Structures are given as structure tokens and as C-alpha cells.
User: Fold this.
Amino acid sequence: MLSRSKFNRFTRNEYLREIIIIIIVIIIIHICNTYYEYTGNQYILIDNDHLNEFCPLYPSTLQGSKEEIIMLEKVEWSDNPNVQIGGIYSPNDCKSRQELAIIIPFRNREYHLKLLLKYLHSFLQRQKRSYQIFVVEQIGNVTFNKGIIMNVAFQQALNIRSTFNCFIFHDVDLVPENDYNVYECDQKAPRHLSPAVDELRYVLMYNHLVGGVLALSEEQFISVNGWSNLYWGWGAEDDDMAQRIRNSSYRLSRPPNHIGRYKMIRHEKRERAVNRYQLLQDWTRYLHDGIKQLNQVDYTIENIHKEKLFTHILVNITRLSTHKLEYLLQ
Assistant:
């Protein structure tokens, strides 16, 4: 019990003012974080399967954020004996909840890919996910078009395995830190899995951000008409996707910031999309520019090959590949 003499000594403490200020600041920060998570629709997924038919949503093999991610100067291709050729894995002690197609758009980032796969395979296996990793690469020297190659990868993944029911589009430069950030599609809406990146001080920069790692079911992806095919260069295709999601009456969900944490592998920024502002202003064209119009894009699949840790899709496109859709820019 706090006696009167102890209380008097406490109130006369020369650091009392500083202590009170610190406590007030901590309370304000907590209130702000709670408010931002509410407005960002950030929540932890709940396991509604009470029949034990599937693997648990949060299996006992999870480690949280205990695994340290080390940015080595040189990285070799990792050896993961549990992975089948093509980057395929399924747990053998329970039935996986969903079948995941992990789609990684790629170009000239071999170091990033080696480092990501070094951690991603073990991360997914601790979660007891059934998955296949697809690395879709744009070849040639023409400006990068991330939207086209991700649409192509979605289509080819379904051609390879029609039972995929969750598609996770994963930037090659983001490594997940906490395996309680389960890689699973939210049946209510697309789920943005990477709200907190170290380069952005682990905070969600704005509520409509979808860049980094995004999970959609097949139905959701078709509903938003996939990615735009018209962004040549880096940037804005993610903001375009955010508008598609909103206009399709979905409210994007996310894990809380302390769970959806990622380390970014540093790199030089690519050439920015020169038409990004024009396209974003006219994002309502999305019904006429996306996965449903991929047959109007001139592209060639040069090769689909199963590597040890992933399935490699090589796509050849030129700057004229989207000429049939460019009437939408007028």
C-alpha cells in the first residue's frame, strides 16, 4: 500500500513532470495507432474452421519475428529439401487451407530474388501453406510493364493448376519478418499483406496503399479486372489497382502494423511511368483494360521452366504490345 510519506516523496520527485509527459505521449501514440489501424481496416484473421479439417490458421510451428533477416553482400541459391522442383510445397501432416500461387514480377534483380526465396520458402512452410512460386520475367530491353506480366502469370498459373484459389502478388524486394502474417486470402476482400515496411518507418503511409504484397482470390481478381496493361515504367499501377478494388465495392483489409512487417532490399529505382498521372485520372477505364483484355495485348511466352525453387515464366513484350488498347488514352 502507498503510504502518505511515500506519496509525498513521489509528488516531490524532480522527474515527476517528465514521467507524466512520457506517460501521456505513450497513451497518445497508442490511441493514434489504434485509430490508424481502424481506418486502415487492419485486423488479425480469425480461424472459423472448428472441425479441424484443415491445417490450423496459426500452427504451432510459427516463430513470430524471431528469425533474423540478414542482408548479406553475396547470396547463393538456397537449398530447401522440402521444396519440389518448380517451387512447389504442400504440408504432409494436414490439409492446407488454400492453394496459393505466389507471383513475383522480376527483371534484373537476381540478388533480390535469391535473398527473398532464402526466407520465403521456410516462412510459408512454417505456416503450413500449400503453394507454388512463379517468377514472371519480362525479357528484352523495352520499358518494364509490371501489369502485363502479372496478368500473364495469373493466367498461366491457372493453366498449370486450376485449383489455385489464392493469388499473392509479391514484390521481389520485400522480405516478410513475422510469420504470424499468414499468407492467405481474405474471403471478404483483397488483403494488403505489407502495410509496414522498414524503409517507410513501419507505418501505413496511406489507407489506399496496396503496393508490395497483395492477396486476392480468383473471384476478386476477376471482379477488379486484374492489373492495368497500360503502365510502362515504375509506379502508379498499384494505385490504379487500389481504385479498382474500391470501385468493385471491396474494403481492403490488412494485418496490424506490428505483424505485417517487411524489410526492403535496397535497389535503384526504375524509370518512372511517363503516363501515370493521365492513367490514374482516367482509372474508370478499368472495365476495358485488365485481365479480360489480355487477349488484345501482343505478347509471347518464350518459355515456362521449372527451376529448383520456382517456376520461371519468360514473357516477351514490346512497346507496341498494347497498341490495341491505347485508344483508351485518348
User: Anything to note?
Assistant: The chain has a mean pLDDT of 88. The first helix runs from residue 4 to 11. The chain is about 25% helix and 15% strand. The longest strand covers residues 130-139.
